[in-house]
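task queued by scheduler; priority normal; single chain, no ligands, no partner chains; default sampling; output format set to structure tokens
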Amino acid sequence: MSIKQLPAIGDSNWGTTLNSYLTQTTDNNNGGAFNQFDDINNRPINLTIDDQGKTYLNTRSGNFHEWSGTEWKILCKDVVNVYDFKNSGTDNTDMFEAAIAYARANMMSEVVVPAGNYLLNLTITGSPITLRGLAKSILILTSPSADDYAITYKDITGEGMKLENFTINGQYGRPAGPFGNGIRHIETTSKYGIEFKYIRTSDFKIGIYRSGSQNCKFYDCALSGEVAMLAVNNGSQPSGNDYYENVVFMGTSKSAIFYKNDQTTDNINAKFNHCWFEKNYGITMYAKGMGRGNKSFIFEQTWYEANVQQRSTPVVINGDTYNPTELILDNTEATFLNCLGHNGIRLTNNSYVKYDCTGLNSEGFEVDSSSLVEIKESAGESNIKGYIADFGSFFTQFGQGVNTLRSANNRPVLTKGYQNLFNDGALDTLPLITDVYGASGVVNASIVTGDSMYENRCLRLDFTAKGDSWGFNSSATPKKAYVCYSIAIKSLDTSASNVNYGFAYLAIPGGVTLEDNRWRTYNGICKADLTQPTFFRIENNNPGVASILLSKLQLVEFDTYQEAANYFRSDLYALPATKALIAHGDSIPIAGNATKGDIIYNTNPAVGSYTGWICTVAGTPGTWNLFGPISA
């Protein structure tokens, strides 16, 4: 603080100035204590130029206020307190705005907020500032309008915007139930985010709303409300690229996490590390338009407990109605690492999920025909890491589509005692029916030897038109509720072939593309229709002719989904401990992806030729070398 300069002795104003000097920082009428006030509204208002340098202690903020002769200066270092500023309106918004403006004007980085209850409708724009509560019991309330937000961030111009140590509650002092909204972050072009630390939201319709909001970080927060966090795109700018650590989502009635990017093409991600989702009664997490290819969501050491308690009750979020399940992904990728499994997931529109966690309930999976699931590890089971060459999801009890897992599976003819339907059979002994559902065109079938994945006979099907199909039925009796299938299939065409496969009483999905003319194995589970035979069919999805080979078909029926799932998993775990593909052919491939170590055995070996080819450099189609010359 400054010291007043006294005039020369004898000056006519000497006495007045001396009195001002003596009381510059102390109150002589109060035992010499600091000049002070206990509320900003009680700060003196009648000081003049003669009181220049007079200083008062604000006992609520702990800062000194010095009178410059014309205005007050707050004596603080780096941090300013909202209690150092007055309200001019009916709520507390003005004091927060004044504190932020003062901090920025004086090159300060932080505004602190003492414990108390505040009514706010605050907008923060521009350069970064830290708004920090001094006690976690702080309650910040929305303005009286039910549609307003307590704090709105927009048009942030740099990194470092922070909100720390607040409890933000929409219900305090109001009737029971959610009221208003908590925090909003709106951006149209800026990619600068907000760091949330020790934030607690509750009793809001929307706890945190984000539009075009990216690169936000959440540490040690507890988020609740009807929707705890809702993020949408703002035009072409999506919301996402976020990080969550030690965040608890609990007690939401509609959704804990809700990302919806409708009009964007970017790949957006978010990582959840050591987070907890509990007693969220509607959707635990919804994500749309996060994209594929950059692991849109990563959940690591994350727990799910007692969620989706109102699964049968639709919820309305942002004007749209949803049927709750724990996780809903639409054109989004997610990876779960060392997590405690969730209760239900719905995948649509080319979504992909990879699991390496425990406690999964596969009966809660709902997966459309375009989406994929990779299960790397499950509770009490051996893992299947490295055994899968390409990924798909198995069919679920909900009956949506046939989803597959493609593997480098070189299984024996017999699997756990169940016979391969093609094993050394003749065409007239196969349990088959032709032209399922009366497909037009002609399907020519023949038994082929010498080109089988299992060194047994295989079936060749020549389709003459799109929609031609060939079917097989299981001989298992009596009929059971679930069917496991395993099929080895190969295209004989030089260009990629696309075939559908499925069961006669189900809608056939989009099919699989046999693009590299090598054997592939597909496995799955289907919920059976007890009123129909177990017809399994292959349908041509090419515009014209197509030819394929089938080397293996198993149809194994079970009474319960758990039995079917156990068998299905055991079939995967029995895969050889290598990703290398063992196949047959008469030349090296000219298309498709190859993995180092892939082997193609010569279909027609002869003296002077070679046993086969081995891939030495992975690629499309890779680098292949001859091996094993055959001599007389």
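post-processing summary
- The CA atoms of residues 503 and 625 lie 41 Å apart.
- Residues 427-576 form a domain with the Jelly Rolls fold (CATH 2.60.120.260).
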